[in-house]
Design a protein that fits this description.
The strands form four sheets. Strands 1, 2, 8, 9, 10, 12, 14, 15 and 16 form a nine-stranded antiparallel β-sheet that branches. Strands 5-6-7-13 form a four-stranded antiparallel β-sheet, with no helix packed on it. 10% of the residues lie in helices and 39% in strands. It has one domain. By secondary structure, the chain is mainly beta. It contains one helix and 17 strands. It starts with 22 loop residues before the first helix and ends in a 5-residue tail after the last strand.
Length: 235
């Protein structure tokens, strides 16, 4: 069991054919051009403001976890009496979990668990005679911890989406995977989950590694309260 540039404007005066200007006006015109050009150039320079204080991005805390941060509820398998059925897990009834301290205050904020146990459904669940409940779930362990969800199912984000404060948030257990015949069956692969802790929005990347396990790859959160963060954003 695991616990877990400034822009410079260059002025190019128009080419004036002296042959088109009367001889008497050539000198006066030349003086006018010489005095006018610096003025025009200065005006253009003033109309090109330089942004000395470009906008800064929100401060993001990114944490990449070790590759072996995996969790399994099964230790081994045994053959089923029916050769067309899956192998049976050992132990027969088990739960394993990883606990996360997102903000590093020495207090556990979330628990991600995987579990399985044998069930005896009254409805038909296939030709195999042995059936198991299998699930991956996440649970907040603090009153200020929330999970982005749709009812009891977790909301899955991709890297094009923002995690926002106006999404649906739950402070209860939320399932990311559930196989529990004859109830709903759903799962995930390599996905981003939305979290909220003390009004700071976060993402958690979790990968399903088998029917009985998962791995946590990384997480990140925005230090600004209620400011959105893109799924997978690192800085």
């Amino acid at each position: 069991m695991m616990k877990a540039k400034r822009i410079q404007v260059l002025m190019h005066p128009e080419k004036v054919s002296v042959n088109l200007i009367p001889h008497v006006l050539r000198k006066q015109f030349s003086l006018f051009v010489l005095f006018a050009l610096p003025l025009i150039s200065c005006d253009k320079e003033e109309k090109t403001p330089v942004n000395e204080n470009p906008p800064k991005s929100d401060p993001i805390v990114f944490v990449k976890l070790p590759k072996d941060t995996e969790c399994y509820s099964v230790r081994s398998f045994t053959m089923s009496m029916n050769q067309f059925c899956d192998k049976l897990p050992l132990p027969n009834d088990s739960i394993a979990f990883i606990e996360l301290d997102i903000d590093k205050d020495t207090k556990v904020d979330f628990r991600i668990s995987v579990k399985h146990f044998q069930i005896f459904p009254t409805d038909y669940c296939g030709h195999c005679h042995v059936h198991y409940h299998r699930s991956v779930a996440i649970q907040p362990l603090t009153p200020d911890g929330f999970i982005s969800s749709g009812g009891y199912k977790i909301r899955i984000y991709d890297s094009t989406e923002l995690i926002k404060k106006d999404h649906i948030w739950s402070n209860a257990v939320v399932y990311a995977s559930l196989n529990d015949c004859p109830h709903d069956n759903f799962s995930f692969n390599n996905s981003f989950w939305g979290l909220k802790l003390n009004n700071r929005l976060a993402w958690l990347r979790v990968k399903r590694v088998s029917d009985y396990g998962f791995s946590i790859r990384a997480f990140a959160y925005n230090l600004l309260n209620n400011s959105p963060i893109a799924a997978g954003q690192e800085k």
